[in-house]
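Notes from the 1:1 (GR / supervisor)

We went over the backlog. Supervisor wanted to see one worked example end to end before approving the batch request, so GR pasted a single chain during the call. The sequence is below; no edits were made to it. Supervisor asked that the structure be written out right there so they could see what the output format looks like.
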Amino acid sequence: MEYAVLLSIGIALLLGGGTLLVQGASRVASGFGVSPMIVGLTVVAFGTSSPELVISIVGALDGQSAIAFGNVVGSNIANLGLVLGTAALIAPFSLHGQLIQRELPLLLLATCKLVILALDGSLRGLPSVFDRSDGLVLLCMFTIFIYVSVRDVLRQRKDPLLVGAGMVPLGTAGEVSSRDWLMVAAGMLGLAIGGHLTISNGAELAAQLGISKTAVGLVIIAVGTSLPELITSLIAAIRNESDISVGNVVGSNIFNSLLVLPIGAVITPISVPAGGVTDLVVSLLFAAALIPMFLIGSSRMGRRSGAAFLLIYLIYMSFRALSGN
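Structure output shown during the call:
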């Protein structure tokens, strides 16, 4: 019970720290006259994935790579199955925006790359692991993604994700208050403390319950750190802002796959745990199911599709939690 409470506190600190960091960094960037569009593609996008990033870094440093792996892959599955499925149940949405046409194929490519890298070792008769070279390759892909995104925004001066976020047009530089810097510092402190609490107590909880650390990362920590995406997508669905609902999920998964996991792998190689390849394949299948839905078919995700996504997610997570792997 004690470990569960401390784990909950750790996740809450991660979420609160991420929120403070985004708000403070956005204010600082605006004070220096940085375009809010660029802030949205960097600071805000980074902020929504900051809990997963901290878990990956702390897990790598503490030798808890199973939790770090489970959190990243579990968050990706939760974003597509739980978050997107629930959003579609609340309000079916159609989508035709360039954001999805650009980022959905990239999400599929990034997830395919993760599966290939995870299978690379086993195909050669070696342990499956994301080593430093794998991390650097994925980080290079992330750099290309950021470059293309920023270039498109600068060319068009408009992006559905940032418009829906309510960001104001580019303005002149202003003053940066000490309160803004305090928000940044408090956010970073909250992330650091929350990361250590989540990792250490997640490992202890796994031992106490007799389940694997990967399962704790996949189910408990992944859902907890996906709360920002869930809340954002649900609000967007209620407001019929479908670009935001899906763009938030797709963007977060790209960050998780091309930034969060690779940084952990660069710090220390991350072993692919038992069942890890299956988790990656499930994430890939969720992503692949979106391609015909939005790019080939009616560009619509209805309540039936949302219910199917949600049901498959719940069944698979129940299986993983009970399998002991």
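Supervisor's comment: The two ends are 22 Å apart (CA to CA).
Batch request approved.
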